[in-house]
Each structure stands twice: as C-alpha cells, then as structure tokens.
Amino acid sequence: YRRLQAKETRLSEFNQTERKAMLGSYTKVLFVRDPFHRLIATFLQGMGINPSFSSFVQEVLDSAKKHEAWKPLVSLCQPCLVQYDYVVMFGFLRQELGHLLHRAGLPAGSLLPELTDSQVQWTYRWLSEQMFSELSAQQKQQLSHFYRWDLAAFPFSSSFLAD
After folding, report:
1. How, if at all, do strands 86-89 and 29-32 pair?
2. Which of 10, 36, 96, 138 has the fewest CB atoms in 10 Å of its CB?
3. Tens-place pLDDT, residues 36-83
4. Positive or negative CA dihedral for 135, 93, 81, 43?
C-alpha cells in the first residue's frame, strides 16, 4: 500500500476509503488477553519500577495513558474500526491457532509450538488470585473502570476485573 513505506503509520492516519481498501486485502487477526493477566505479565517482566504488585498497579493507574503495555486493547486495536476476521484468546491458543492455520490452508499440527493451555490457565488463575489480593478495594475498582471497554468488548468472563 502506498503509504506503508512510511515508518509507523497509524491506521487512523488513513482516510476511510484508503483504510477500507487496505484492510480489505488482509486477513485480520486480533490476539486478546485478559487485561489483568497483561498487567501481571508486564509486572513479572520487570516493566514496573516498584517492587510490589500493588505499587506497580498504582503506577499504571497514575500514568495509564503513557505506556502501550497496559493500555486497554480497545484503544490499541480499534475493534470497532477494524472488522477482524479472527479473534484469538490467550489461554486457548493451541485450539484457536490450529483452526486458524487450517482455515489458511496450512498444516496446523507441524507449525504449532508446544502449548499447554490448561496449565497456562491454571497458572494465571493462581497468580491472579495472589496478586489481586494485594490490591486495595479502590485499586480494584479503578482497574475495572480503566479496562471497562475491554471487558465489555471481549469475553473475559473469568477475569478478576469483571466483577
């Protein structure tokens, strides 16, 4: 596409006609993850400067608009603007990637990494319980409010933030 040569051109910089033409020529896949799990992963990767998860969450809440690692998915991926062909949920990667590869005409079994979705789900459930218990009631409420559009747009029914 003519303006794709420019570095980091955002989708919003294209006019509606250009966007429609460009997006119509791609298979669009969106990978989504529970926002609370994203926060845990970001914390564990050392992206926060604070030693406790509660302090890290406060840092996120105080500077929420500044860092892409914890911005709501709805603001990053524009699911209302882009009609995605597939939405793949973290925690169901093996099942969903197999289906996606099959639909693309690729040999699904040979290309997939060894994924153990049930172990990943159990681990994040345990981590979520531990880390959620560190947060104040106000932090829990603020996180739920901050990620409200992600929680409404995607089926994160078991998210600790959904309550």
Report:
1. parallel
2. 10
3. 888 888 888 886 666 889 999 998 888 866 677 788 888 888 777 788
4. positive
Q: What is the largest CA-CA distance in the chain?
A: 50
Helix (H) or strand (E) holding 1: none
Q: Which of 86, 91, 75, 84 is nearest to 37 (CA)?
A: 91
Residue whose tokens read 């690692």: 69
| Residue-wise pLDDT tens digits, 86-104 | 888 876 666 777 778 777 7
Amino acid at 149: W
User: Tokens representing 84?
Assistant: 């995605």
DSSP string, 99-115: HHHHHTTS-HHHHS---
Position 129, amino acid: E
pTM of the full structure: 0.73
The tokens for 26 are: 């791609």
**What's the start-to-end Cα distance of the chain, in Å?**
43
The SS3 of residue 155 is coil
